[in-house]
Amino acid sequence: MDDVVSPYFGGADPKCSTESSHSCSDEVPSCGKRLGKSFFDKECTTLAKELLGQVLARKVNGVILRGMIVETESYLGGNDVASHSYNGKRTPRNEPMYMAPGTLYVYSIYGMYYCLNVSSQGEGSCVLIRSLEPVDGIDEMIAHRSVKRTSKSKPLKEHELCNGPSKLCLAMNISKDLCNKVDATISEEIWLEEGQSIPEGDIVIAKRIGIESAGHEWANKPLRYYVFKNKNVSVKDKKAEASLSE
DNA sequence: AAATCGATGCTCT
DNA sequence: GAGCATCGATTTT
Fold it and tell me: Around Cβ A130, how many Cβ atoms within 10 Å?
């Protein structure tokens, strides 16, 4: 079974033609409707769920890249041991977690990668964007991802372009220099657009990834959300999926 | 499909 | 100096 078409954003698309030249004419670089401040001004877990199906858009060298968000995680601040803002911790790095909802928090990790978050309502809370389903600018995404790969490695499939938090940053040319602290509700370089609405019954709720050192209690909290059966999700959780009806 | 392991440098203690 | 909200390549089932 090869490349099953996503139930949410496959084949035929609707809104934005995928032809090489975009017909967005005015200053606002948006084909889909831009998500504004009120969309982001929600409690963290609500925002994380509602971001599923929305479209992350990025303009690089005049070309607009788009990907539908299919996996997110909440980082709550306060008691959340896994959060950079645990116990109200505030440093130069995590300052954007305390900024207005819709502000982007981009941090560097493992010396070579970045992760993209969006500030939500609540002190020090944000949503990590973990994976996207590529929509527009796929050739550019492949080019961006290919830079750091050996020429003899297997060609990337579409669903491998943005199936991880740092992969999507590479694919969409998101770095701390370029995007940290940017207000996504007004930027013309990076923003979000209204996409699909994912039914509650198609959202898998699972534990977060890569935070074992936070200890069992917080590492196991169900604060990761992803679109059921979507091929672009970075890590699937069979047990969590079993509790969905289908 | 899963396990293993090295890369590589920012951020905070 | 230690610890990463990871990835990519190689090796093993």
Answer: 30
